[in-house]
Amino acid sequence: MFRTFQSRLVFFFLLVSLSGIILVSLAIKYSFFGSFNDYLETKRSEQVEGVIERLELEYRTGGVLTGETMMPIFHHYAMVDNLFFKLYDDNDIPIIDTTRHLHMGNSHMMDLPSIEELESNQFLLMSDGKKIGVLDVYFPREYENIDSQFLEQFNKYIIVVALSMIFISIIVSFLFSKKLTHGLRQVSNATRELQKNNLEIRIPDEKHVEEINQLAKSFNELALSLSNQEKLRKQFTNDLAHELRTPLATLRSQIEAFIDGVWEPTPERLQQGHGELMRLVRLVDDLEQLLAAENPQIQLRLSEINGKDALESLRASFLPLFKEKKIKLLIEEPRSNFYFQADRDRFFQIMINLLNNALKYTNEGGIVTVTSKLENEDVCFIIEDNGQGISEEDLPHVFERFYRGEKSRNRKTGGVGIGLSIVKALVDAHKGRITIDSEQTIGTIVKVTFHKTNE
């Protein structure tokens, strides 16, 4: 038993890796998770105790319980820690209710829980032995997103440690065999190059024993995988950076319209500007997350979207841009409301990209038309322009990343050839369809289809 090198390698590999995995699992189960839960509960208790002390101090100081001094703290706890409060006076009349943020958050596409997902505790507010009010505290039953992300990241570190132990056991096992010196030297040299970020390094395909051949093959696959991941990371970084220009341009046009007196700063228009700003913030957040994530795919947050309202929002956002370039924008209002399922931010990202393309490649005095219609169980948005169009040889490649036809034209517009590839990826993620029909010098018709919501 264990006479062959392969059997001993398997033995040491299993011994080291399983030992590490068992030790790490036990440490996580009996130490870290318990300590982390205690920390979260202690933190929440200290926050609530601090609020109660300050409310009672406010009453003792002013003789009345208003909670006005606590509003910044209440708002901070609601936005950062998902900790909400309802404050009542001694007659159980509501004074402050920060759970309204839950409804506000849902309308602004913020990641807040519903009140049904929260647990609650009630505390009496006392002063000199007399009841002065009641404080209801609402908090999540489970981990918040940031806590879950922390635990997931911690688990990833544990996995990396376990894999490192496995890797070390393999290397040590191979080093005990003198017959494999040449093969191990190649592996060692290639590993050093990989550590220097030389992702193109490969081990030559030579005749070694089976174990070394398998190791060389695995290393090459690993280097290839790392190289592809690095290219994918840079590609997605460039994609998102490209998308930052769109909300900035929209915000700029709206603000300039306010400054020039073209628009009055009404609450509705300010709200539209705020929506663009929040889309910009979320794009920046996505960029930061994608740089650190192993999987760069973006999770969709599907919701029911009112198509009529969405078209009106696009009209308000893009009309100043089209007027500036002296292009006529026609967005046909549907006869009745209709609804469809999509991620609201990604839907606007799709439509904004397509309208920006129409704006870029339509000459002064041209017309861009946006229509919508129902087809069976689908909702279709059609963007038609009489601009420069796309040549027949370029049309099959318009969705390819970084593909740019007519380089001189693209130098003028500043495109880098990723806008339509992003649109295609987002439409595919929605399980929708997108088609482009175009003829050079005549114009382009883009048709995007989403699934309709059953009313």
From TrEMBL:
<keyword id="KW-0067">ATP-binding</keyword>
<dbReference type="Pfam" id="PF00672">
    <property type="entry name" value="HAMP"/>
</dbReference>
<keyword id="KW-0472">Membrane</keyword>
<dbReference type="GO" id="GO:0000155">
    <property type="term" value="F:phosphorelay sensor kinase activity"/>
</dbReference>
<feature type="domain" description="Histidine kinase">
    <location>
        <begin position="239"/>
        <end position="454"/>
    </location>
</feature>
<dbReference type="InterPro" id="IPR003594">
    <property type="entry name" value="HATPase_dom"/>
</dbReference>
<keyword id="KW-0418">Kinase</keyword>
<dbReference type="InterPro" id="IPR004358">
    <property type="entry name" value="Sig_transdc_His_kin-like_C"/>
</dbReference>
<feature type="transmembrane region" description="Helical">
    <location>
        <begin position="157"/>
        <end position="176"/>
    </location>
</feature>
<dbReference type="InterPro" id="IPR005467">
    <property type="entry name" value="His_kinase_dom"/>
</dbReference>
<keyword id="KW-0547">Nucleotide-binding</keyword>
<dbReference type="GO" id="GO:0005524">
    <property type="term" value="F:ATP binding"/>
</dbReference>
<dbReference type="GO" id="GO:0016036">
    <property type="term" value="P:cellular response to phosphate starvation"/>
</dbReference>
<keyword id="KW-1133">Transmembrane helix</keyword>
<dbReference type="InterPro" id="IPR036097">
    <property type="entry name" value="HisK_dim/P_sf"/>
</dbReference>
<dbReference type="Pfam" id="PF02518">
    <property type="entry name" value="HATPase_c"/>
</dbReference>
<keyword id="KW-0902">Two-component regulatory system</keyword>
<dbReference type="Pfam" id="PF00512">
    <property type="entry name" value="HisKA"/>
</dbReference>
<keyword id="KW-0597">Phosphoprotein</keyword>
<keyword id="KW-0808">Transferase</keyword>
<dbReference type="InterPro" id="IPR003661">
    <property type="entry name" value="HisK_dim/P_dom"/>
</dbReference>
<dbReference type="GO" id="GO:0004721">
    <property type="term" value="F:phosphoprotein phosphatase activity"/>
</dbReference>
<dbReference type="InterPro" id="IPR003660">
    <property type="entry name" value="HAMP_dom"/>
</dbReference>
<feature type="transmembrane region" description="Helical">
    <location>
        <begin position="9"/>
        <end position="32"/>
    </location>
</feature>
<keyword id="KW-0812">Transmembrane</keyword>
<dbReference type="InterPro" id="IPR036890">
    <property type="entry name" value="HATPase_C_sf"/>
</dbReference>
<dbReference type="GO" id="GO:0005886">
    <property type="term" value="C:plasma membrane"/>
</dbReference>
<dbReference type="InterPro" id="IPR050351">
    <property type="entry name" value="BphY/WalK/GraS-like"/>
</dbReference>
<protein>
    <recommendedName>
        <fullName>histidine kinase</fullName>
        <ecNumber>2.7.13.3</ecNumber>
    </recommendedName>
</protein>
<keyword id="KW-1003">Cell membrane</keyword>
<feature type="domain" description="HAMP">
    <location>
        <begin position="178"/>
        <end position="231"/>
    </location>
</feature>
